[in-house]
Each structure stands twice: as C-alpha cells, then as structure tokens.
Amino acid sequence: MSYTLLGSAPSPYVRKIRMLMESIPYELQELNIYETQDGLTLNKVNPTNQIPVLMDGDQRIWDSRVIYNYLNRKHKLYPELSIDEENLITAIDGAMTSAINLLLMKRSGMNTDENFMFINRQKERIESVLDFLKPYLGHQGLNEWNFVTISLYTLLDWGVYRNILDLKDRPECQKFLQTHGTRLIVQKTQPPKV
Q1: CA 191, 7, 188, 13 torsion-angle sign
Q2: CA 194 to chain centre
Q3: Where do the domains of the chain lie, and which CATH numbers do they carry?
Q4: Mean of pLDDT over the chain
Q5: pLDDT per residue over 61-80, tens digit each?
Q6: How far apart are CA 191 and CA 39, in angstroms?
Q7: How is the beta sheet containing 26-30 ordered, strand by strand?
Q8: What is the enclosing helix (H) or strand (E) of 64?
Q9: What backbone phi and psi angles, to 5 degrees, belong to 53?
Q10: For residue range 89-134, what is the model confidence (pLDDT) as tens digits?
Q11: 3-class secondary-structure state, position 194
C-alpha cells in the first residue's frame, strides 16, 4: 500500500494528516499552490484547489477530515469520532479557516486591523472557538492524543507561527502547546522557519 500526500509543509491541514499518518508509510509531494505550475497540478486532482489531497492508487481523497475518515476506516487508528468530537473538530476547522482568511488578507496587502465586518467576523470566530475550547484545553486535551488534539495543536501552533494568534492571555493554550510539543511527530512535522 503506497500513499502520496499532496501539500505543503507549512499548511496546518497537511500537517495534521502528516501527524495522523505517523505509523503509515507515505510520500509527501510538496506543492506551492501559489505558483502557477503547482496550482495547475493541484487543480488536476482536486477541483476545490485546496490541500491536502491523499492519493491511494487511483483514489483521490480531498479535505483533511475526509482523509482522516478514509484512513481511520482502513487502518483503525482511533475509535470512531463521537458527535461531541465531531463538533470540536468543526469548531477547530472553523477557527482555522478564519485564521487562514486573515493570513491571505495580510498577504494581499490588506490591513487586518481595519474595522470591516468580514475581518471582524474572522477574529470573532477565532476568539469564540478558543473560548469554547477552554474547558477541553485544560482537561481532556492535555491527556489525549487523537484527531481532535492533533487538529487543535495544528491550529494553535500554526496561528502562532503565522502571527495570527496571540496566546499571551490564554495560558490554557500555552500549556496545551507545551504539553504536546515534546511529541516526536510534532517535532518532525514542524513547519520551516519563516
């Protein structure tokens, strides 16, 4: 069985699949989706033009959550997600989408400190999700390592890495990152220094 994972090392969605596949052999095909050729390559295998994409022979699997479900069915990595866990992942992915939107706006030369409804909604969603996750961060999140904690780790670590999240007033987030930051797979998938 040979998997190919299309994506980029800095992508939080790709990173969480790389962490998930810690014990599963795969080849990472690095793409810079903002370069024309790599963007065209991606578009040929995923019409949503997003990473990651998992290739299993002729099968193409899009979206990190669908990839998780596909791999979990095949390899029995973790117990099936409960509705509460699905909701946690939905919240985490919602915050991640907002964080990525803010990064893309910054890279497009937009001032994300402006008082615009779209910008404010992105920031409000992130704060709302982090508030919602506070009990999880302080209890279960410190004691478990599963797709929820992997997803949460990639959100927080990527948000700090890209200067989107300021966690100085969120000690529960800092403790969560410190607790899981010592894991070998976390260190092996660390995004490159900017």
Answers
A1: positive
A2: 18
A3: 3-75 (3.40.30.10), 83-188 (1.20.1050.10)
A4: 94
A5: 999 999 999 999 999 999 99
A6: 20
A7: 26-30, 3-7, 53-56, 59-62
A8: helix 64-75
A9: -130, 130
A10: 999 999 999 999 999 999 999 999 999 999 999 999 999 999 999 9
A11: coil
